[in-house]
Amino acid sequence: MGDATMKWFWARIAVGVGLLAVLGGLVWWGWSAASARVGGGPIVVGILHSRTGPMAVSERGVIDATVLALEEINQGGGILGREVRWVIADGASDETTFAREAARLIDDEGVSVLFGCWTSASRKAVRPVVEQRDHLLIYPVQYEGCEESPNIVYLGAAPNQQIIPAVAWAMEHLGRSFYLVGSDYIFPRVANTIIRDQVEALGGEIAGEAYLPLGESDVSEVVARIVAAKPAAILNTINGETNAPFFEALSQAAGPGDPIPTISFSVGEPELRQLGLPKSMAGHYAAWNYFESLDRPSNRAFLSAFRARYGPDRSLGDPMEAAYCGVALWARAVAEAGNEHPREVRREMQRQSLDAPEGIVSIDPETQHAWKVVRIGRARPDGQFDVVWTSGRPIRPIPFPLFRSQAEWERLVDDLGRSWGGRWSNPGRSIEFVRAEADREGADAGLATPSAEGAEADQL
């Protein structure tokens, strides 16, 4: 073979090798692209709740329900052929810690979604974190409303799905005079403003109003004032551990023959069991969208799966069920989006619906809140609730109550935050008693705060 022939031969070999390399690269690229769509590395999510502090009694169960839902997804093959991995962070019942941990989960852990927060103070603190990063928080707890964020999906009740129907029911069945008692942060303050608007519009009376720091155990003065005021009922927005001494003291002060009925907005079956409340809270009421005692096939399956995982004696409550459903709705949105990118998943979340343990839950595309069935339950000595009233069908969420304009509600919330130095819970540690008269002149927009000009309050 001559030199010219040899050069031609080796040139053809080189071209052939080059073509094979290009074809191999195209095959690898195609496999990689397909792998990114239907397989590949794990999808990482963040769970952000309180494992410590006064809110841990409520939030630990929400962590468990969230983990159960994620485990079930992996047992079913994951999402898009990918395993889901989770990182749990402790918000420590402190809004500043929640914000810091949210940023860490997104920036350092690379999570694609946050499942978390209980108190509105923690959610308010996390909101700018997810908005600045164009991320996604799925929030499972009922709240005061007066908020919408494109970066949050709200799976708990808006005011018209819990607070407002419960007050209407109370005025019809319990009486027209109410004492308002709550923890001293954004949810109870705004919730009680909503209640005041509603009660006064319906010709009722607010007999008194008191706020306790989260975790407060000395409730004797609060209970004494409630008993002295003789309201027809108490509307309770206390969160966490303080409910234990509150109901115990109320039971002792009122006496077995003359109890003051109480409707709670943040006490469910887990709190009854873990705080030792079944006897002292028996006969009182709670307003939720879900109760463990619901006789529905989807609820029976949920209870069975949860207890098989965590033990037969565990109790389940509304935020736990909402958290469990939130994972399922998110997983469907990821599958339909074809990836876990928060912006695309948020868009798909707006079209999701689920036959949940509580009933049909659908995400409202206008507000990113869920349609919910409203229920009021009466506590039994065994720690369960008998449903005494239900809306019977899912109610469309209205985040901003119709008593005021959206601008007025937003201004009220912003003013409260400013009065607390940019926080969403009262930095003071005193118990506050707000003037009881319905015609409190000078109280700004019906909202009393420790530093609000014109608000008349006694502080211990």
UniProtKB/TrEMBL annotation:
UniProt KW keywords = Membrane, Transmembrane, Transmembrane helix
Segments spanning the bilayer are 9-31
Q: Which domain of life is it from?
A: Bacteria
Concerning SUPFAM superfamilies, the annotation shows: Periplasmic binding protein-like I
Instruction: Locate the region Disordered.
Output: 439-460
The Gene Ontology biological process terms listed for this entry are:
amino acid transport
What InterPro entries does this protein map onto? ABC_urea-bd_UrtA, Leu_Ile_Val-bd, Peripla_BP_I
Report the protein name in the record: ABC transporter substrate-binding protein
